[in-house]
Amino acid sequence: MKKIVISIAVVVAVVLIIGFAPLMDVPYQEIETYYVDEPYEAMETYIDTMPLSYKIVKSYTDLESYEVWRMVAGKVKIFFPIGCVVVKNTDSGIGTVNIQFTFYQLTESMAQFLVEALGESKDEVVKTGGSKKYDSGNLTLEPGETGTIRYSFENAIEDKLVFDYYLWDWEYTVTQATKPVEMERTITKYRQVEQERTVTRYKKGSIFQYLLFRF
User: Fold this and answer.
1) How many domains is the chain built from?
2) Which of the given ranges, 16-25, 115-124, 128-137, has the highest pLDDT on average?
3) CA–CA–CA angle 146, 152, 157 (5° rounding)
4) Residue 28 lies in a domain
5) Residue 200 falls within a domain, yes or no?
6) Where are the extended beta strands (E) located within the chain?
């Protein structure tokens, strides 16, 4: 009888030792904090462009000159045209007017040939048969302000011409007239929002702890 009791005690001791030994991955639950991106609407300010109201007051040709040396006459002045466009801002906001200048040039001899061949006037053949040079200028004006956009024929060509022997003309085109305008629009933005969730984690534990979690 005593042996039986001892044997039972030994078995119980072994079971208790094994049962409480941290031999297994025992699951447990805990609260975890995490973040998600939550969309929301917001107003954004941005700058856009709109057509500018303007008025061409007038256009005219100005003249400037430079000096050259000639064998017979010595130092002489050579005149060249400057295209001038007077613009008025008739809008309520500040804006910019862009103008493209076109300069035409044609020799007298070629002009005479084209006049006879085409039956056009000299003014007409300068534009139809002459070579073209392009350039552009711009002017920013306050509301109600008037200004002049100028561009020189001399700046539109690579070599200075002796205009005594050339016919010339010019014209302009308003390519753009705009003003900056502050606008608003609705956009989607994101902000991080804190949330909680229950997660299962693991730690070393005994068989008894594992069975306790399971049942």
Assistant:
1) 1
2) 128-137
3) 150
4) no
5) no
6) 24-51, 54-70, 74-89, 95-107, 131-141, 146-152, 166-205
13 falls within a domain: no
Q: What's 129's domain CATH number?
A: 2.60.40
3-state SS class at 130:
coil
Identify whether the C-beta of residue 169 lies closer than 8 Å to the C-beta of residue 106.
no
With contact defined as beta carbons under 8 Å apart, do 189 and 40 qualify? yes
pLDDT exceeds cutoff 60 at 10: no
Question: 158 pLDDT exceeds 50?
Answer: no
Name the band, by pLDDT with cuts 50, 70 and 90, for residue 28: confident
Q: Which amino acid is it at 42?
A: A
Neighbours of 3 (CB within 10 A): 7
The total number of residues shown for the chain amounts to 215
Decide if 201 is inside a domain.
Answer: no
Handedness of CA 157, 158, 162, 166 (dihedral sign): negative
CA 27 to CA 198: how far, in whole Å? 13
Euclidean distance between CA atoms 184 and 51, whole angstroms = 18
Closest CA to 162 of 93, 97, 69: 69
Instruction: Provide the pLDDT for residue 73.
Output: 62
> Which range has highest mean pLDDT (93-102, 127-136, 201-210)?
93-102
Percent of the chain whose predicted confidence (pLDDT) is above 70: 70
Which phi-psi region, left, alpha or beta, contains residue 74 (left: φ > 0; alpha: ψ -120 to 50)?
Answer: left
Structural domain range at position 167:
46-184
